[in-house]
Amino acid sequence: MSADIPAGAPPMLRVRLFGGFRVDRDGGPPLSERWPRPSARTLVKLLAVSPGHSLHREQAMEICWPDADPQAALGSLRVALHAARRAIEPELAPRSVSSYLTGEGSLLRLDPRTVRIDADGAEALAEAALAHGGRAELAAALAAFTGELLPEDRYAPWAEPRRERLSALRERALLALAAAHLSAGAPEEAVPAAEQVLAAAPAEEEAHRVLIEAYVRQGLRRRAVAQYHLCREALDAEFGVRPGPETERLHRAALAAPVPAPRSVGPVLPAVVRQPPTAPLRGRDELLSRLLAADAPPVLVLTGEAGLGKTRLAGEAARRAAAGGTAVLWGAGHDAEGHTPYGPFTEALDGWLADRPTAERARAGAEYPELAALLPSLGRVRPESGRSPEEERDRLFRATAGLLGELAAERPVMVVLDDLHAGDAGSFQLLSHLARRSREVGSTWRFLAIVRPEELPASDLRRQVLDQLLRQSLAGSVELPRLSREACLALTADALGADGAVPERVWELSLGNPLFALELARAVRDGDGRTGTPEGVRQLVAERLGRLGPAARRVVDAVAVAGQDAALTEVLDVARRGGHPRLSAAEATEAVEVAVAASVVEERRVVSEGRPVAGLAFRHPLVRLTCYEGLSAARRRLLHSAYAEAVLRRRPDAVDTLATHLTRADDPRATGYLRQAAERAAALYANDTADRYYAELTGRLDALAAESARARIDRSAVLRRLGRFDEAARLLGEALEELERHGDADGRVLAAARLAELMPKTRGTEDGFRLLDSCPPGPGTPAAVGAPTIWPAGCCVSSRAGTRRAWSPRGPRRTRRRR
User: Fold this and answer.
1) Is 54 exposed, middle or buried (0-12, 13-18, 19+ CB in 10 A)?
2) 791: part of which helix (H) or strand (E)?
3) Which segments within 52-174 are labelled E, that is strand?
4) Do residues 128 and 137 make contact, with C-beta atoms less than 8 angstroms apart?
5) Is residue 811 left, alpha or beta, with left meaning phi > 0 and alpha meaning psi from -120 to 50?
6) What are the residues facing 302 on neighbouring strands?
7) Is 0.90 topped by the overall pTM?
8) What is the pLDDT of residues 165-190, one digit of tens each?
């Protein structure tokens, strides 16, 4: 309570206009938040904003009830006055004089002794600070302006004069505070004050001058020049004039200011390649030289099949470049996150800024505010402007070029963009802009982009941007090949350790793919007994297959069942018929194109029936094995059956192919084709192949069947050629027992003759004689009993009975000799 109010006076009434009308008291009964009449609130507001807080009754009636006749307006005023007095002083007795809202003749008035208004206090503080205050007084005065004056009556004409007066006073205080900060050598503190002025009055030239000078003093040359142009646009739009001489002088000073170089501290390498590799890079020295060549174009596009080590090679190039003083920025696209806006560049720039000191990050954010909407390290604020998306994109591109240019002014810059194919179209457009700018200004920044072209269809805008860069010689392509045998084995030796022997099969299965070789080497090292493809290979293939649609998966499954190479016509046939619903010819053809574009399979000329035809093949045998292992047993049988039918329709003489597919389809016809394939291989002296066919044939036949015994006899001849006499003798013994069980005398003669022939090599000649004596040919034994294609000619043994049986392809014959 004021000192001039005597004891026992009513509590002080406080009227708040900033941020919305509110009334409270320092004591006494609490005031109700809800007034009985809106006109009562309006009357108090009107008095609070009027000069001297007093108003003639007729003025009040004209403002509050302009359309009412004088008598009705007077009645309304009396009612509103009564309600207002009761609202701000509930304890007021009837017919008593109010302590706050008084009437002196024709005047209505808020008593200055008992009423305090927040706008009056703020106004007094601001005028005092402007008259003879410093930074502290000005800041305190501005703090008293706690909000907009009566925002609920923003367009009421009776509040406008007071609002304009307070706004102008606050603007003067802000400008004075900004100037005081500049004078005190604190330009960074002057910026917020001047920006508040421009938020309310964009054409206030003095505020623009404060900002330009503050930016120049902070070394934010680009921001200072941009602020000048904002000032010029605002003055032209508002008043149709140009900036004054003082503003032009500051503009020239901004243009002449040197570009500050960033203070590089902390590690140069990004975190993703900061740790040194555990093993040397094998077989890539020539490629490293190309990636680090000084005369390379602004962009190098590193391509190659999955698993070749593109990221590993880029990491080694980044480490060597950093060792030579290059600043390395590393960003990547991520398929799992979708096409985030400018994702690879955001990661690269933000990763670099994260290692900078706070002051340097703040300077970068102030110089390039467009990047603050993109980079978390700069605060990631939402852009608020009336510019079109195209204008905002252009400003973002220029800001990125400016930031890289500052860094490149101190040292060369390499930006690695890993898996760029997972980035959005904006990332490719930004890369194009930066490559062009690098060529135009001769900057020392360059880009190494890792791309899988199969992820970018020809119709994709990203592919078109990349192709345009290559056509304009702004980019060069570096395709990563597979490792040589020597480098592949050295790589696996590194993984197995100094004492680890590298199996040749690692090279045979990996064919120089580093990922596959390392996975195979780990499987050898761990020795856990697992079969099939390694887990890392399965994951890679599963990720690639997951992007294919059902029709394209049918094509891949058909090629996996066919083997490493497959005729295109047969693949299309299987893809169309080997599933439900059946595909049309156009759908199957389109599915082939999708599978090829995804780089799961590739087009290749294959040999079918002695002539080259169009075909499909997996890029790597391990990929084919992984795809085949991923098929269920039921799916495999279905596809093998469909493939066998396709071969039967087109090349029925391909007995080997038919034998394989019918066997895996568990088709009853498999035994006939297995026998044909085995006999054909034996006739061509392909003994290993023949043995494999015969083994499969005997395995499919009933072990107790006579046909199985005949197959064992035929297989024994193949094993004899291979020098596997013990195995041949065992099979012949099994066949002899089975034929004897079935009473097949002619078959017993043949089996006994074959076994007797082998006994000199396995047991002894006498055993052979006894066997022949136990199985003599009968009078009805035909010539060439069961003679197979591979009958061994010229076999002669003698029996103790004095009978010489000479066995030949024409069958047994007897000659008698004297004992």
Assistant:
1) middle
2) none
3) 54-56, 101-104, 107-110, 115-117
4) yes
5) left
6) 450, 478
7) no
8) 999 999 999 999 999 999 999 999 99
